[in-house]
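Task: sequence design from structure.
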């Protein structure tokens, strides 16, 4: 008699054990130096995690990825991206034939004057795959290739060649990234750089009014591309065929880019194509401005350094209708105001601290136990504090004579 319960069901899903239960207070803090899981310095990218490299079509993302791979494999910095050690790298790509890849390689080696002796320790393997997508790509291409070598980092170029679904549907994107890619990264202890395209820019060219927070969501399709990625680096056109902006859209502080003062965080760099071949180089704002990009250079400077104090104070209401709460802003509201104006939200705290130190805005706690911190112009904060303290007393029934109107003093 045939025992049917012994026949495996080909459609049955693998039942995984539950995740390990950990005591939060027993998890060790990663060491500042020598962390074996760290791939890019200061934990910008670690094993089991992914970085999106986003940019418009045709600008040279693949050659940028090649240059990144060569430098990281040598343990050398690439545009302020510093590897923890020389990394063993696998490149899987669908758009460049072997001749293109060789030209990219030679362009980088010549442009950076890398000698054969320096390359002795570099390990970069590459494979060309342009037919399998989705689960087939992960099971039949990515997994077997990762098993052939102890790779630290895999570069997949481009994402849309391998998704095998609708890039705008979260269920397709999440199934590919979270359910198929993530387990392979953890199983093989490697990180991922996933090259992704931006949305089609309006009117055939990229505009200068992208907001700072939008850089994490430049990739075409579902927002889960950005939500899933641990880190995001974007290349943005500045209206030039030579100069581009390199922007860290997620975890930017971990790269520790700094202004010339050595203290102020920096989130963008100007990069340019080499004049001598297929190679990228860092450029300066002054060089870009001298080359005819004066207006764009001013926009980049604003995104790097944040707003002037007068512009910052202008986001705060100077009047309200009935409720004094309308004259104050929460931290989330301040951050949104930054994004609406194209200022990087990471500047909001420093601007608040400076303005509070000069008495230009005042911090006050909202109503109720554990009320949120609110900030506003001094007259607005004073009106709210009086209203809050009067609640529950007879004074609550006595309305203010009229809403406060406060005109900001120009500095």
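Answer:
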């Amino acid at each position: 008699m045939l025992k049917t319960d012994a026949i495996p069901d080909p459609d049955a899903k693998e039942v995984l054990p539950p995740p390990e239960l950990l005591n939060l207070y027993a998890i060790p803090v990663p060491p500042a130096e020598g962390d074996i899981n760290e791939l890019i310095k200061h934990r910008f990218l670690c094993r089991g995690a992914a970085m999106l490299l986003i940019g418009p079509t045709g600008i040279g993302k693949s050659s940028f990825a090649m240059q990144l791979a060569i430098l990281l494999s040598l343990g050398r910095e690439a545009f302020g991206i510093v590897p923890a050690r020389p990394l063993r790298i696998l490149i899987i790509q669908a758009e460049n034939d072997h001749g293109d890849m060789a030209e990219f390689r030679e362009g980088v080696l010549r442009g950076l004057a890398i000698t054969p002796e320096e390359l002795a320790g570099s390990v970069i393997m590459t494979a060309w795959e342009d037919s399998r997508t989705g689960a087939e790509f992960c099971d039949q291409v990515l997994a077997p290739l990762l098993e052939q070598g102890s790779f630290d980092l895999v570069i997949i170029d481009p994402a849309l060649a391998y998704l095998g679904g609708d890039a705008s549907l979260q269920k397709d994107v999440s199934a590919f990234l979270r359910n198929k890619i993530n387990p392979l990264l953890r199983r093989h202890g490697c990180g991922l750089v996933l090259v992704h395209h931006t949305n089609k820019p309006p009117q055939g060219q990229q505009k200068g009014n992208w907001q700072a927070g939008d850089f994490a969501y430049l990739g075409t399709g579902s927002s889960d591309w950005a939500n899933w990625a641990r880190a995001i680096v974007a290349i943005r056109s500045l209206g030039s065929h030579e100069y581009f902006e390199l922007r860290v859209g997620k975890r930017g502080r971990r790269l520790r880019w700094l202004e010339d003062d050595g203290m102020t965080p920096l989130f963008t760099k100007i990069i340019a194509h080499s004049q001598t071949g297929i190679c990228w180089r860092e450029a300066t704002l002054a060089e870009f401005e001298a080359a005819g990009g004066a207006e764009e250079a001013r926009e980049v400077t604003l995104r790097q350094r944040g707003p002037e104090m007068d512009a910052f104070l202008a986001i705060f209401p100077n009047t309200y209708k009935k409720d004094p709460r309308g004259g104050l802003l929460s931290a989330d509201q301040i951050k949104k105001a930054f994004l609406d104006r194209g200022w990087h939200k990471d500047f909001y705290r420093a601007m608040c601290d400076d303005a509070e130190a000069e008495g230009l805005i005042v911090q006050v706690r909202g109503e109720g136990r554990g009320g949120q911190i609110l900030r506003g112009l001094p007259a607005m904060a004073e009106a709210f504090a009086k209203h809050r303290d009067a609640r529950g007393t007879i004074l609550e029934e006595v309305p203010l004579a009229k809403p406060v109107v406060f005109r900001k003093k120009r500095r």
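The mean pLDDT is 84.
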